[in-house]
Design brief:
alpha/beta; three-stranded parallel sheet; 5 helices; 7 strands
């Protein structure tokens, strides 16, 4: 059914969509039409942010950050930090501060992301990892209360910045 069909079925008159970011997965700049779009928003804003999965990080130096983006995660690919990549943090803050409506942050990622500001200012945070082809239906069911994800936390939910990031033992005994 997807988010738009579920919203219309629930009696909402419209679902508006805007990409917000311009550029590659790194969200290099914000769309200049964003302020006028946000002025027309009423109801709840759902902001989808996160990382891009890849099988390998082409162009990354051994043990280093990808040359092109900090938004990529995958095998043999280290990220330089755990912050939201590019201007995603600024986009989230602009949406929350400009609309005055309830705001839901939907994270699409598998690796760590520091979401300290969101934890203190956003009304709801939903982490969807990489949800697959039925993502629209599944996420709509959660957002409209048809399904309760039971508030499960991902394994390392307490790590919010790079400084206290623990060293994990990855070798066998």
């Amino acid at each position: 059914m997807g988010l738009e069909k579920r919203a219309l079925a629930a009696g909402y008159t419209a679902v508006q969509y805007m990409a917000g970011c311009i550029g590659s997965t790194a969200c290099e700049s914000l769309d200049p039409n964003l302020p006028s779009f946000l002025r027309s928003c009423i109801g709840t804003c759902v902001v989808v942010l996160g990382l891009t999965a890849t099988g390998a990080c082409a162009g990354a130096p051994p043990g280093g950050c990808p040359a092109s983006s900090n938004a990529i995660e995958g095998e043999c690919c280290d990220r330089c930090n755990v912050n939201l990549p590019g201007m995603q943090q600024q986009l989230l803050e602009i949406v929350k501060n400009s609309t005055g409506t309830n705001t839901v942050l939907m994270l699409i990622n598998a690796g760590m992301l520091a979401v300290n500001w969101a934890d203190n200012h956003i009304d709801a945070i939903l982490r969807a990892t990489y949800p697959g082809q039925s993502a629209g239906d599944a996420l709509a069911a959660v957002l409209f209360g048809d399904y309760n994800p039971a508030g499960r936390l991902w394994p390392a939910h307490g790590i919010m910045t790079l400084a206290p990031y623990p060293t994990w033992r990855t070798t066998r005994w």
